[in-house]
């Protein structure tokens, strides 16, 4: 038989996954802001970007690769933000219907809820792990784009000093 302490432990783990979801959502919003800001500036200043590339004899392909990397980061971030199927603990109406003529004992209810919490927590953790993986990929791509941008700027500085 489950105790209230055991139930509270399982509920805490379930709540931790809900909190993790919120943190991942915030991170995805931050990534989306960074990417759209960067792509927006490049989009608005496309003529200046082409002029910069021509002035320093940079390959447009290199700039296109950087834009592609950012676009891929955007796709990963959007995929991470997509509607996810999270598991709720149970359908309370179904629980009430299952009571029948006489309500079950508290220990029996705790046993059932422990099972529901375990299943819901595991399913939600899988969803959160998927989102975290997508955001890790997006983060790596953002890093790569910034690295490419810094490389391009360093090349331009060195070339201008020659």
What does this structure look like?
The protein is mostly helical and 162 residues long. It is 84% helix and 0% strand. The chain contains five helices and no strands. Helix 3 runs antiparallel to helix 5. The mean pLDDT is 90.
Summarize it.
By secondary structure, the protein is mostly helical. It contains 5 helices and no strands.
Distance between the termini: 79 Å
Q: What level of helicity do the residues show?
A: over 70%
C-alpha-based Rg, rounded: 25 Å
Point out poorly predicted stretches: none
What's the pLDDT, averaged over the residues? 90
Q: Count of helical segments?
A: 5
Number of strands: 0
In terms of DSSP E residues, the strand content is under 5%
Outline the biggest β-sheet. Answer: none
Shape: rod-shaped
- Taken in chain order, the helices and strands follow as HHHHH
Task: Please identify the structural class as seen in this structure.
Answer: mainly alpha
Q: State the domain count.
A: 1
